[in-house]
Amino acid sequence: MTRIGRRRAEVWFRRLSWSRIGEAVIENLIRLCGISAVLFVFGIFLFVFREGAGFLFDGLDIEKFLFTTEWYPTSRSNVRYGVGALIVGTFSVTVLAMAIAVPFGLGAAIFVSEFCGKKLREALKIVIELLAAIPSVVWGFIGLSVMNPLIQKVFNVPIGLNVFNGAILLALMSVPIMVSIGEDALKAVPDAYREAALALGATRWQIVYRVLLPAGKNGLLAAVLLGVGRAVGETMAVLMATGHAVNIPRTIFDPVRTLTATIAAELGEAPVGSDHYQVLFIIGILLFSITFAVNLTADLVVKGIRKKQ
Amino acid sequence: MSSLGPSAATPSVAQTGNATPPAGITTRDLNLWYGAFQALQNVTLDIEHGIITSLIGPSGCGKTTLLRCFNRVNERYGYVTTTGEIKILGKNIYDEDVSLVELRKHVGMVFQQPNPLPISIYENVVFGMRIHNRRRELNRSATDQAVETALREVGLWDDVKDKLNMKATGLQLEQQQKLCIARLLPLKPEVILMDEPCSALDVEGTRAIEELMWMLRGRYTILIVTHNMAQARRASDTCIFMLLGEIIEHSRTEDLFIAPREARTAEYIEGRYG
Questions:
Q1: Distance (Å, whole) CA B138 – CA B204
Q2: Element (H, E) at A166
Q3: Is it the case that residue A264 has pLDDT exceeding 80?
Q4: A:31-60 residues touching chain B, CB 8 A cutoff
Q5: Does B76 touch chain A (CB under 8 A)?
Q6: Helix or strand or coil: residue B110?
Q7: What is the pLDDT of residues B97-148, one digit of tens each?
Q8: Which of A176, B119, B210, B272 has the most CB atoms less than 10 A away?
Q9: Residue A8 — pLDDT band, cuts 50, 70, 90?
């Protein structure tokens, strides 16, 4: 090897080691970013748990907490913390919202993915994403100022701020998630299946319900569950639109109050560290557990798809 | 361009005169464009009923495109324009009154990659019946019967009769491809189109599918696109050689391989290009 050649080789090796260090730094940085997400989630859970833990293990009657409907956190003489009505409120709004959103959301996902032309698809996707970008407080406004009088007039009920109002808003808010996840799920169904059915003489609708729905059912279920997660966790819109009355609804036109709205409305006024304050955090833990369970189910369901393919 | 001459008649099929077209598939001046690109040029063919016809030619010559014209599955992409006519059983399939659903019932297709649907074996076989009949017209015994007949015909019955409710995508590739053929049979098609049906299979699988084609021969008009010239040679009665969207030669398989009329055919089968 000539001298020049050797020198060049040395320079090369030096560069190599530098770039290796750079690589390692970047790799660790990226690893940190990834792990930080986990840290934050645990951190939040820990914080919420710590704030509520004292009263949760000492003083709170869990059975009464979950299954009674008396929510009088600021009563002077007889404080009662029963979130039964709030749980029912959350679930009634969520269930009704899903009853509206699932057909619309999945229908839209099927339309966008299977039936519409390319241009319309792009346009629709943009509009649907726009729908997802509307802040929830704006939805709350719509609930208060548009839906409220409308529901009063159309259904001839005294109050327009009720389960129905909140459910429609929640439905509109969770439809975008369902559409985009649902569309992905349908896209993931191999085109070979569509072609097979088409070549056997299936119509487009037959392809959808005989091939795509069975083949994409896990992804579609995940889409629905993520929509449910969104609806359970939503706060501002339901706070403004459901009437905020602790009440077990008998019809969809009764006002209710949800778990999330209770936290949002009362946390600012509860003295830090008081029983009331801690109970609100326990409601937070409850909500956290519900959304965690829903999301985990959705995740496992999606994993189920991947394993099979 | 050559039409099938009298010498190309196979012994098993009665040769009809030039005046009346044979009852298989006939095309007249078929042209097809993908957008501005012309993929088929003046394709005029007479394909006989009841025999196996292979389509060979280099990649991009339009074999698959031509095949996919016969059940009009090409048209799922919006940018396809077609002119000319294709007659199957004497009916022009590009006529206004032709229903694609009915057409595809009569013209079945087998794909390159076995594509059984992600449902049970049983449901795969009766899929065609389910989509072409109303629910109350199908009873369990009719579908059971159809499944057994179809699976026996493709030689799959003994392998799968105990696991008809198993998901079809879990079968071996060769079995999947047989199933894809089996699911055409309950619809009683006239024509079976095969788009490189063996390219995903190993030697044994290929042999099995070729044997199956010979079993089905006679009752169906079978068209097979293949990249494998040896396969065309051993597994077809007549052979069509295509180049750049045109039919170069269409004759009896032995003739085409032993004494091709066109220089371009000779060069292709010698492996000078392609």
A1: 36
A2: helix A163-187
A3: yes
A4: none
A5: yes
A6: strand
A7: 888 898 999 999 999 999 999 999 999 999 999 989 888 888 888 899 999 9
A8: A176
A9: low
- List CB contacts of B262: < 8 A, sequence separation 6 or more: B241, B248, B249
* Number of domains within chain B: 1
* Beta-carbon count within 10 A of A66 CB: 12
Nearest by CB: A201 against B76, B104, B111: B104
User: Nearest CA to CA, how far is B109 from chain A (Å)?
Assistant: 6
Strand partners, B27: B45, B86
DSSP-derived letter for residue B249 is E
Fold of A71-308: MetI-like fold (1.10.3720)
Chain A residues within 8 A of B129 when measuring between CB atoms: none
Closest CA to A244 of A230, A265, A268, A270: A265
Greatest distance between any 2 Cα atoms in chain B: 58
Q: What angle (nearest 5°) sits at the alpha carbon of residue A188, between those of residues A185 and A190?
A: 140
Q: Per the domain annotation, does B89 fall within a domain?
A: yes
Residue tagged 């320079």 (tokens): A11
DSSP string, A28-88: HHHHHHHHHHHHHHHHHHHHHHHHHHHHHHTT--HHHHHH---EETT-SS--EE--HHHHH
pLDDT tens digits, one per residue of A134-172: 999 999 999 999 999 999 999 999 989 999 999 999 999
Domain ranges of chain A: 3-58, 71-308
Q: What is the CATH number of the domain that holds B243?
A: 3.40.50.300
Q: Which residues pair with B52 in a beta bridge?
A: B222
For testing the chain B interface, which of A200, A207, A308 should be mutated: the one with the most B CBs within 10 Å? A200
Helices B173-182 and B121-132, packing angle to 10 deg: 20
Query: A172-213, pLDDT tens digit by residue?
Result: 999 999 999 999 999 999 999 999 999 999 999 999 989 999
- pLDDT tens digits, one per residue of B194-222: 999 998 888 888 998 999 999 888 889 99
* Nearest CB partner across the interface for A201, out of B101, B111, B113: B101
Q: Residue B190's domain spans which residues?
A: 23-270
pLDDT(A294) > 50: yes
List the structure tokens of A248: 């077990």
Cβ-based contacts of B109 with chain A (< 8 Å): 199
What six digits make up the tokens of A192? 């070979």
Q: What φ, ψ does residue B156 adopt, rounded to 5°? A: -110, -10
Question: Dihedrals φ, ψ of A299, to 5°?
Answer: -65, -45
Domain membership flag for residue B103: yes
DSSP state of A119: H
> What pTM did the predictor assign?
0.80
* Closest residue of chain A to B104, computed from CA coordinates: A201
Q: A203 at the B interface (CB within 8 A)?
A: yes
Q: What are phi and psi of A308, to 5 degrees?
A: -75, -25
